[in-house]
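Sharing a chain and its predicted structure for anyone who wants a worked example. Both blocks are below, sequence first, tokens second.
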Amino acid sequence: MRWTFILVYVITSALFIFAFRVLPRGNIRRTFLVMLLMLASYKFYDIAGSAITPLWFRHLPVYLGEVVFYFFIVLYGKKYIELETTPKQKSWHQGSAVHLSTLLVIPAVYSHQLTLFGYMTEQGLPHILTLPLFILFVALLRLRFGLYESRYSVPLNWFIAAAGAWIMIHISEFLLESQKISPGLAVHNEYFELAWYSLGVILFWVGLVSFRKINHAHSS
């Protein structure tokens, strides 16, 4: 629907501009904005009519966006939560994220050729795969930083919740469109997805406001 595209475009643009103004210059702001565009890209694909684009390729920006989200949290945690990590920990975590994102390219390239990947695609694997990746990265971040002991972890919790809300878009598609658990609800799935997307935008916005307040109080 055209009004849906306009709404998503407006709220995403507003969030992008707000994040650009609130976050400090440098890698933290760059990774956040790239993450935002990657995670949001699927919704624009979906609204614009994505039947001609293979399902795995439509999800690749989302998978990569989750990897960038991981690096954003790492950069944020190192700068504001002030916990030290050893070179070994840094190498293992970052290397794992990059290697995992590389592996995700394989089904996108060969899903149209391999019967198994074709079957998994029909069953909605590209949708549901977003969830374990998200859980994995959040678990790694908890292990790395013990995030929830600093005042700067408050906005971080909002960011994680916001990313989780956007992941729910894909879970909704998996359940209602791929698994067809409720044909009646599947008809209205576009509105469910829009609700999850809007919730994610709100949570990201709250996180940015929280960060601005804490950062302003710290610098005063």
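Comments welcome. The radius of gyration is 18 Å.
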